[in-house]
Amino acid sequence: MARDYYGILGVGRNASDQEIKRAYRKLARELHPDVNPDQEAQERFREVSTAYEVLTDAEKRRIVDMGGDPMESAGAGGGFSGAGFGGLGDVFEAFFGGMNGGGGGARKPRGRVQPGADSLLRTRLSLAECAVGVTKHLTVDTAVLCDLCQGAGTNGKSKPVRCETCGGAGEVQTVQRSFLGQVMTSRPCPTCRGAGETIPDPCRKCGGDGRVRSRREIAAPIPAGVAGGMRVRLAAQGEIGPGGGPAGDLYVEIVEQPHDTFVRDGDDLHCTIRVPMVDAALGTTVVIDTILDGPTELSIPAGTQPGEVSVLRAHGMPKLRSSSRGDLVAHLDIVVPSKLDGKQADLLRKYQSTRGNEHTEVLSAQSEHNSGLFARLRASFSGR
Ligand SMILES: [Zn+2]
Ligand SMILES: [Zn+2]
């Protein structure tokens, strides 16, 4: 569900960037972990910071104003740098010149061995491939374990030593002035990059990182029913960590190619069928070349009206991890002939003479047809 970012900051929907900034600063003064160690305050500070990040980003704010939540899609799948809370660092940087992790106090150096990052790949699938599932052979470029040092990072027998810059703490501290007063901030040590130790004689293949980049082929099983934007997770197929740490996950994001006939809406498929006026009046059948069931007959009953739909139940896309399926919805476009030759016009006049009661008329605003039409008109005007 979309969060109320304006409400979180206590500003109106028309608030200017200046007003948003002011509201954020005011709340941050109360809630920043350096000022208020309360657990609840920290939660709120995260919320407030996210709201600030969203509302000062024109693109994200546009999504909010359209009723969406930019942080939900960004966070889906999770774990990518720059997505979700990962992007929060920038806000802290802008206001506090770096963050100290929120908890305060000394942290242990994070060590040389670290878990690896997740990776993201995109793959294009046709609608048919989304419908039946497919195994995609993809080329992945990730960090893998250095085979020369087996992740140790050292050349020969030398051992890592304590970092001189940070004395093994993995971070260095600076005191900065900000609008909160003096704030002590900690940054990862620039010499050992947070590890707390350095390698005097690093591996000549990996330079001490314990890993090297490599391309490889993988077979990614894509289940039936996926849709564009979904991510399939392949556990431990991402980047291996520094020092030979456990590998992150690999996510394969689906990009769905448009289909010639069908437009997808969730698990339903929609298509448009042109029906000549006479066929609509008398009834007919049409064969649709469906994606999963081959050519399938759809009957168009006599007396079909313009704009009506005909539904083939359970002939749409399969639902993910389920045996049920969506529907195939055919929208019937009734076509009135634009040119008649003399004989055809005569036949229609004869037909007309047999239907004496029918005539062209202006409908009452209260008629069933109009009430629907006007409701749609009103909705389209008030929606802006
Ligand atoms: Zn190595
Ligand atoms: Zn260091």
UniProtKB/TrEMBL annotation:
GO terms for molecular function: ATP binding; heat shock protein binding; unfolded protein binding; zinc ion binding. Residues 133-215 form the CR-type domain. The keyword Metal-binding applies. Its main location: cytoplasm. Participates actively in the response to hyperosmotic and heat shock by preventing the aggregation of stress-denatured proteins and by disaggregating proteins, also in an autonomous, DnaK-independent fashion. Unfolded proteins bind initially to DnaJ; upon interaction with the DnaJ-bound protein, DnaK hydrolyzes its bound ATP, resulting in the formation of a stable complex. GrpE releases ADP from DnaK; ATP binding to DnaK triggers the release of the substrate protein, thus completing the reaction cycle. The lineage of its organism: Bacteria, Bacillati, Actinomycetota, Actinomycetes, Mycobacteriales. The J domain is necessary and sufficient to stimulate DnaK ATPase activity. Zinc center 1 plays an important role in the autonomous, DnaK-independent chaperone activity of DnaJ. Zinc center 2 is essential for interaction with DnaK and for DnaJ activity. It comes from the Bacteria. GO terms for biological process: DNA replication; protein refolding; response to heat. Keywords: Chaperone, Cytoplasm, DNA replication, Metal-binding, Repeat, Stress response, Zinc, Zinc-finger. It comes from Nocardia vermiculata. Its cofactor is Zn(2+). InterPro entries: DnaJ, DnaJ_C, DnaJ_domain, HSP40/DnaJ_pept-bd, HSP_DnaJ_Cys-rich_dom, HSP_DnaJ_Cys-rich_dom_sf, J_dom_sf. Zn(2+) 1 binds at C146, C149, C203, C206. Homodimer. One of its GO terms (cellular component) is cytoplasm. The keyword Cytoplasm applies. The gene is dnaJ. Belongs to the DnaJ family. Binds 2 Zn(2+) ions per monomer. This is Chaperone protein DnaJ.
